[in-house]
Recover the amino acids of this structure.
């Protein structure tokens, strides 16, 4: 499944890996903010979230790194790219 399908079917969770400051400036509703730099320390929290997990950031770069890291640990996740794209996918499900 790709990010859009996961979001539209509401089958997983969304993690925003931007900094708390970036997250406060705008984010996807019901997303969890776990910055990339502390992701390794927050693995228990990540594992408790409903999978598959959609990861997002500002451009898709950091979420790509997070996706690669979590996939290597056996966590079902996909790179959703920009949080604005993920927000758009979610807005289509609400309408």
């Amino acid at each position: 499944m790709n990010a859009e399908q996961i979001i539209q079917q509401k089958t997983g969770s969304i993690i925003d890996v931007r900094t708390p400051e970036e997250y406060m400036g705008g984010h996807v509703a019901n997303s969890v903010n776990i910055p990339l730099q502390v992701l390794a320390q927050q693995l228990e929290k990540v594992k408790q979230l409903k999978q598959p997990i959609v990861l997002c950031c500002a451009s898709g770069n950091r979420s790509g790194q997070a996706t690669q890291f979590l996939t290597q640990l056996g966590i079902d996740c996909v790179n959703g790219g920009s949080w604005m794209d993920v927000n758009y996918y979610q807005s289509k499900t609400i309408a």
Remarks:
- The first helix runs from residue 3 to 9.
- Residues 8 and 93 are 5 Å apart (CA to CA).
